[in-house]
Amino acid sequence: GEEMARFQFLEETARRIFTIHGYEELRTPVFEPTDLFVRGIGEVTDIVSKEMYTFKDRSERSLTLRPEGTAGVVRATLEHGLLRQSSEMKVFYMGPMFRYERPQKGRQRQFHQIGCEWFGNASPWADAETIAMLTIYLEACGFSGVRTRVNSIGARGDREAINSALRSHLEAHRGDLCEDCQRRTATHPMRALDCKNPGCQPTLDAAPPIVDLLSEASQTLFREVCEHLETLGIEFEIAPRLVRGFDYYTHTVFETVLPGLGAQDAVLGGGRYDNLFEDLGGTSTPALGASLGVERLSLALQSLEAGPDLRSRVDVAICLLDEAGLEVAARLAATCRAEGLRVRFDYQRRSPKAALRDANRVNAHFAALLGASEIEAQHVQLKDLESGNQGPVSFADLPGRLQTHTADSPQ
Could you report the per-residue pLDDT of 293-312, keeping only the tens digit for each? Predict the structure, then answer.
């Protein structure tokens, strides 16, 4: 119903916007070897340690329903040598993901993502263009006030300094942290910054900004990304403690938010992951990408006061007013459909009033009324349901008349 229409609109808009930016669609399996996600996402992340659906097949191989899309896309790129013909590639994907977490509004255990990945480009312009493209996508969906939070978590060589500073801060406030953050303080201090527990926020907000702990080279790269975003006219703000939930991220990380969604206002996120190809057995390849949650964005779309009209459109509803015209109406419907027209015809006889009411209900532009007198005259009474104009159109001319209207109508 209406939810499916929103899903299709979000997917079709993504295909259109991503394609004009040079992306091609790629599809990967719903499940992968478990080790792919452990190596790619990180063993101490919540997704790997708590949320993955993992099982053994009949050959005792450990498999996992994909919790995210990037690791599988990189695996497929390596396995099939997709970068052999070109050193650079842009792909997008869409489909179901699976995480065992508490179901809530806009977040289910099977959920859907749309994502994009750009392989082989290390320029900070690529980071800025990706964020710009996603902003364009959200605006094309009808959203306004789109704003992106950006940060840099630096190269892997910066992690020791980051983790040391964060660990000292978190240890000093250990009593104010939840059990997960206390555990992360020892194993992965930067991961604590991703905690959503309200009781931890004052301590996490007071943590040293990550960008201040980076090497000069990493800070320079981040400044260039921000400068390029300004050049492209993208609304953004620096979020000095923003991190992402996967260990593969390096340098730029970001999340894009929409106004009016409350605490859970982020509808997409991503960043750069320049080491993931090597981690999965490939050669060094710069890469970045992002993904968005379709369910969450669908809810946001539903809340728009002046959102797009997503009702499916019918070109013509053939309205049978006399059972004697059943065969004629069936042939007319088949002829119009053969010309690519969207036709509503259910083989039911109705009164003129009921037939027009049904045509309006299915959002038809025209109603073709067919009764005994029309059969004798070899025409239909064609009524424009938007203007109210009505007149006879011969059976032979009907497809052409409807096609003329379809060609002139805005899509």
Answer: 999 999 999 888 767 777 77
